[in-house]
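REQUEST FORM: STRUCTURE PREDICTION
Request ID: SP-0412
Submitted by: Lab K.M.
Chain count: 1
Length (residues): 253
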Amino acid sequence: MPLILQAGLWGLLGGSALVLGAAIAYLATLPPRLIAAVMAFGSGVLISALSFDLMDEAFKAGGFDSTASGFLAGAAVYTVANIIISRRGGKHRKRSGNSEKDRQRNADEGGGLAIAVGALLDGVPESIVIGVSLLAGKGVSLVAVGAVFLSNIPEGLSSASGMLKAGRSARYIFGIWGGIAVASGAAALIGNWALAGTSPDVIAFVNAVAAGAILAMLSDTMIPEAFETAHEYAGFITVAGFLIAFVLSKLGG
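STATUS: Completed
RESULT:
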């Protein structure tokens, strides 16, 4: 199978967790602490992925200048875009949405549509990373794919909860999230195609941009939500996620 199609399929797999999260919200109500545990674990996995699969590899490829500038640029772009989306109703897009308060808040803030737009902001850099990881010729980074998958489940659950509260139909909900999952696959495919054959400095910069955006997203959304619900267990679960991803990355290397 051509490398570019592999990238698209792996990106689609990561994005499909959004549809899974929406299906969970549509069919069942999970304990908020379980959702928070998944978020904490996914946060730990993402931190490991951005540390070793992104920042470390970016430094090896392009040195401090490309890595540092990309890292700060990614965080800055995410922060500005996140402020804009938050003011338009997507502030709570990573909320688990299981409490009545969260469901009402998501419904009031645009019925979940702004949350869905925010998912594109979160998902594009993650998907590009998946596509770029194939360019090294070592196969896809399974840690990166797993991290993206885990972080997308509560996001799909949150937005779908808000949409249900706002009276949206199943066709509308799954149409939105199915479209975003496809867009995630397209982002991975385009990233793999557009960056093939580029200089190590460019690859380093792009990886660092994604790392900065992902870390800013974690700090702003997933980690606070996990701590708010899981309380004293969130730190340990996050560390466990980091450790497992670290071990898998070293075994895979």
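NOTES: The two ends are 23 Å apart (CA to CA).
Reviewed by: T.R.
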